Amino acid sequence: MLRFTFRRLLQIIPVLWIIITATFFMIRFVPGGPFTAEKAVTPEILRNLEAHYGLDKPLYRQYFDYMGSLLRGDLGPSFKYPNRTVNEIIGDKLPTSLELGFISLAVALVLGITLGTLAAVKRNTWLDYVCSSSAMIGICVPTFVLGPLFVLTFAIHFQWLNASGWYGPSDRILPCLTLGCVYAAYIARLTRGGMLEVLNQDYIRTARAKGAGELRVVFKHAMRGGLLPVISFLGPGIAGILTGSFVIETIFQIPGLGREFVNSAFNRDYTLVLGTVILYATLIVVLNLVVDIVQIWLNPKLKFE
Amino acid sequence: MVSLSPSPDRIPPAVVTPEQIETGHSLWHDAWSRLRKNKLAVFGGVTLIILGLLCGIGPFFTQSYQTQNLDLGATPPSAAHWLGTDTLGRDLFSRILFGGRISILVGLVATFVALAIGVTYGAVSGFFGGKLDAFMMRIVDIMYALPFTIFVILLMVFFGRNIFLLFFAIGAVEWLTMARIVRGQIMTIKKMEYIEAARALGLGKRRIIFRHMIPNILGPIIVYTTLTIPAVMLLEAFLSFLGLGVQPPMSSWGVLIKDGAEKMEEFWWLLVFPGGVFSLTLFSLNFLGDGLRDALDVRSSKD
């Protein structure tokens, strides 16, 4: 177990290195720099700007400089926000995105597992059909349709909630529900499938034969095995929630890192794009590793595959 | 030929011996009859055919999607404009049909790209096995963990929002699952006798893979292709919603939804109808894919 964790940790390093290097060179080879989009600057000013940000050095020097400061945890200055560093901007915006992501994930897990378990336990009853078809609807209505529809219904028509912004607790409801719903739907389907498989097994019959109550059988005995597919979905699910937040933050005008990333890409703010990509990549790769480890911890059979 | 009916307009039935009737149930025949019994899958299939026809030939009969009528402006659904008009007075129904063409085109082409990469990669990995297989699958594992949506966004931003780039960028992201499935299938049929026979005949590896193995694993390939199309269309709409996908004057369902979401406060129909049609399409594709999976009896496990 420890060796496995260690080996996977070591694998992360080359993966992250490839991502960083690929992104670095990709954005340097594209036409147009951060200063070309703005109103024409005189060649002297352009030279000064480039010298200030080190863009006049040969590319390989820029690369080594960047990697060097990255190792010290410094993501460099932003090209578009004068006098602000990428670290500051990320530190400013990331907490909002993380909050959005975590609440949405919680919504997805609670809603998905509840619906999926209900559907599995009451298999082939009307309850199962209701849960299963609402899961299908959740999968097929994309966030960028669901979000505006929620706004239309709850903010514009009923005027219960704000259409946008990120101030009070009530502003969390619509964005997190929108982002959580899609993944709740996937989780519900996986839970139903996993629980159905487990509920037919001998050890569940044994538990029932011992006289364990239905609730105890479902929650104590069946869930541990039945939720394995959900755990393995968490890796892609978390990645999806992180990238899904780009759209959610745009719809609900949330000042998070996702919107900042899309804007910085449009603005060709090299350092900010690079910093955000590195951050997202690290988050996703590390969280995937955590999911893998939890999975093996719960299901030792996987260790031998 | 016991009782040949004399009516001349009917083609006489071919000579059929009892043996042939019994062996006539091929895998595909069985699958087809199972699929027909699945109401949701049939619903999905029929809806897709109707939508495909509407988007394919509809624009020839409706009003031009570009005709502007600024005096008219945005009007709610009416007899003249079934789904209303947008702020420039353009007929929403024809815009949805026209946008559908692009969305479906992106869905099909990008899926084809993903299919080509995934099948080849998976087949090579599964066929050769050993160290090469371990290496190739390790790469797939690692790529699964990468934030690919972010890369597609970067590609679209930096290299211009070109529709051909869109096909390849999306296709290059969605091939991973297909590669895993094909590899697993190839591994299971690799040891079968007919492959052995093909080898004994001295056929080349490429010929064995593409002429003898792939036709025999078409079932899973078809199922996952059907399930890849909605994923691809979703990604296209996602990018278009962020302003990174299909660019004006072309439009796609994602673009229409984006426009609708911006104007929904006053003109709800601009959001509801494109969103509804898009969701319906995803529904149908998913139902059809699920139905095909059951009909062709493809195990849902990914290996």
Reconstruct the topology from this structure.
The complex is a heterodimer of chains A (305) and B (303).
Chain A: H1 2-28, H2 43-53, H3 59-71, H4 86-121, H5 126-140, H6 143-157, H7 173-199, H8 202-209, H9 214-226, H10 228-251, H11 257-267, H12 270-298
Helix pairs in contact in A: 1-12, 4-5, 4-7, 4-10, 4-12, 5-7, 6-7, 6-10, 7-9, 7-10, 8-9, 10-11, 10-12, 11-12
Chain B: H1 18-23, H2 27-37, H3 39-57, H4 92-128, H5 130-144, H6 148-158, H7 163-173, H8 176-190, H9 193-200, H10 205-213, H11 218-241, H12 253-263, H13 269-295
Helix pairs in contact in B: 2-13, 3-4, 3-13, 4-5, 4-7, 4-8, 4-11, 4-12, 6-7, 8-11, 9-10, 11-12, 11-13, 12-13
Summarize the model shown.
Chain A contains twelve helices and no strands. Chain A is mainly α and 305 residues long. The interface between A and B is large, with 43 and 37 residues.
Mean pLDDT of chain A: 85
- Helical content of chain A, roughly? over 70%
Largest interface: A-B, 43 and 37 residues
- Spans of chain B with pLDDT under 50 lasting ≥5 residues? 1-8
Describe the structure.
The complex is a heterodimer of chains A (305) and B (303). Chain A has 305 residues and is mainly α. Chain A has helices spanning 2-28, 43-53, 59-71, 86-121, 126-140, 143-157, 173-199, 202-209, 214-226, 228-251, 257-267, 270-298. The two termini of chain A are 14 Å apart. Chain B is mostly helical and 303 residues long. The relative contact order of chain B is 0.14. Chain B is globular and about 75 Å long. The chains are: A mainly alpha (305), B mainly alpha (303).
